[in-house]
Amino acid sequence: MKFKTIITSLTAITAMTLGGVTTASAESTLDIVKKRGHLRCQVGPPSPGYYNLDSKGNWYGLDVQTCHAVAAAIFGDKDKLEIQSVSSQMRFTALANGESDLLSRTATWTMSRDTQLGLDFLQPNFYDGQGFTVRKDSGITSALQLKGAKVCVTSGTTTELNLADFSRVNNLNISAVTFEDFNVRDETYLNGGCDSTTGDKSSMAGNLAAFPVPSDHIILPETISKEPLAPAVRHGDSEWRDIVAWSIFAMINAEELGVTSANVDDMRANSDDVNIKRMLGVEGSLNKGLKLDKDWAYNIIKQVGNYGENYEAYMGSGKLGIGIPREGSANALWTKGGLMYSPPMR
Amino acid sequence: MAIVKTEKTPAREAPLSETTIIGWMSKNLFGSVFNSILTVVTLYIIYLTVRDVWVWGVADAVWVADNRRECFKISIDGACWAGVITWMDNIFYGRYPREELWRINLGAILLFVWMVPLWLPRVKAKVLIGVTTVFLYPFLAGYLFAGGDKGIFMQVMISAAIVCLIGNTLHSIIGVLTGSSLPEFLIRLLGRQDAPEKSQHKILFGILAVSLVVVYLWQMGWHAEGVSWTKWGGLFLTLVISGIGIASALPGGIILALGRRSRLPVIRVLSTAFIELFRSVPLITVLFMATTMFPLFMPEGVVLNKLVQVIIAVCLFNACYMAETVRAGLQAIPKGQAEGAHTIGLGYWGTMGLIIMPQALKHMIPNIVGSFIGLLKDTTLVSIIGLFDILGMLRSISRDTPWLGLHKEPLIFGAILFFLICFAMSKYSRHLEVKLSTGHKK
User: Fold this and answer.
1) Of A55, A90, A186, which is closest to B292 when you measure between CB atoms?
2) Right CATH for B88-96+230-399+407-442 from 1.10.760.10, 3.10.350.10, 1.10.3720.10, 1.10.287.470
3) B288 at interface of A, judged by CB pairs closer than 8 A
4) I want to staple B17 with a disulfide (CB 3.0 to 4.6 A). Which of A246, B23, B180, B224 is the partner?
5) Quick check: A107 and A232 in contact, CB under 8 A?
6) Which residue of A has its CA nearest to B69?
7) What is the pLDDT of residues B13-37, one digit of tens each?
8) From its phi and psi, is residue A310 left (phi > 0), alpha (psi between -120 and 50) or beta?
């Protein structure tokens, strides 16, 4: 897996140095996107909750909604969008060489990525962390009891490294059993090949819900890593960065202000709240700095919905949701003890 | 004194082991105690396997359900084919707009119609039909699949393709019925069979030109909605990539092989270097190179989409493998053949085209089909670089929230599908071999 990492960074760096030279003087991303007539948004190979294909061939998921939100803000139409699925080895390259305008996939915001790959990470739209699943009848209630256990893990991500760190720091002597595909990892765990599986808690919750008998398994309370999953844009185009960042903030802010896709028309017409009026473009001129229409935030909320609605639909208990509880987690609004916090829109 | 046997030895019955099943079994399966034990044990293992597969895959399987949870409720140990069935459109057509699927189907039917004359008896000029399939059909199919605005060049090629398709079809119908070719038939229809050859040719060219113009005017009114390559996927994409790869591998391979055997040092060295470079790296590396490096070599503003990059990479890669297959075939032809050709006054191209290649290609069929099958299976690698070919689609099922974790059934379905396609290809190659090996009956 180290080989992959080297290749990834090498190609990204080559692309940046070569690509950077040629595109430095070129037009801004917003102009390019407007001229093209649609947004090119990059996701990854399907990943439950974040970006998925349905049986009709359409994309759906929390990160896909971010793409839709930016398209709605720019064009007033959330479907002026081309979604590209790029493998994780190529994700930063494809952004750097201009194939995509926006990276909206489960990329963990880390310092080295932010500072060395020529990217700007924005407001995380999901705070994840690594955890463990065990069988209920094993009697294990804490990750610290996993001494000498065999733990199934998918290779090639930070998950594997986190597990090794956790084992070393706590002197647990965990032996990792690695897999390329999470389906095979879970299959092995279910057949008794491992005592536990580890992965991001969000995806584990989803996978657990799909086990034949979900109630036989529990996710342990410990979270052993910080995984802020954030969209990213190319470094150096602040105007574009602002548009994407505030599209996400608008969704979070709308939830805080109680504006939903269902009541946004009513709010725009009748609300007395000056914060709502400013956000929806009834008052003030917040849109000017973004070079977008007055309706930009209204379009996002009307067509895509606020953050809470989307969380419910794809991460929560909606029909397509993977059932991760939001209360008490980092993904709750700051007013409810979480980390979802938008700077004031004024 | 001599011993002479005068009466005929009476014919004996064939041994039981050759005529009856029981006899055969007692000889081959239960010949000794050890064999009997082996037979019984093996039969038992086969029984266990088949029974388990049957119970899981058919008897306990769920065929209709809305999601995987429902499958579990109906039968917790059975296969959940409902997910595969729900995803069938995705598996075959990818994300192609559902109301435009007829375009893919039509493209497939046209290809079939185009190729049928190749298999019919009494049809002449089969080589020409084969060549037009490779060089004209792609334009017609390309427009059908991709749609969008057509430039002048595209319009001309589409018209040519349509004229050719109609001509092909008439030609083969006439061929099967009367044994003559379309031009002969047309001339006879016009009653000009006694005219000199030159004026016959003029008439034929006239007909061709008129039909081209008519078709050109006719197709100007068409407009197929553009479908972005990002929506291509499933078996359709797999067949597009491998189809183009197969169609270009043979011509490319022949050119490279001739280049490698050329007496001109520059051509020889270049061909050899090219072949060895591409043969010594794995396909996945070539694919990664193509998708990361091609964009950097392109002049600014020119953006090749990923599908084109992948197709170029697959074509180059397979042309190199094919070149070595072709070279092996050429090597097998004795030198005397070329010398013989020279003595009757044939030049290089005449020798190659008329004497060497036809013999060599016959020897190469098993290898060529082998690499085509390999190519078809290799194209599944494109799922790694983010294209949704059939493997990418099959793997996506296990990520779709209603079917989360459903990964065995789709892969088994894919395996069956691939087996059918590849088996059909190798069967066809056997058939070709038998048909063409007229001089070497074994």
Assistant:
1) A90
2) 1.10.3720.10
3) yes
4) B23
5) yes
6) A210
7) 877 767 778 888 888 888 888 989 9
8) alpha
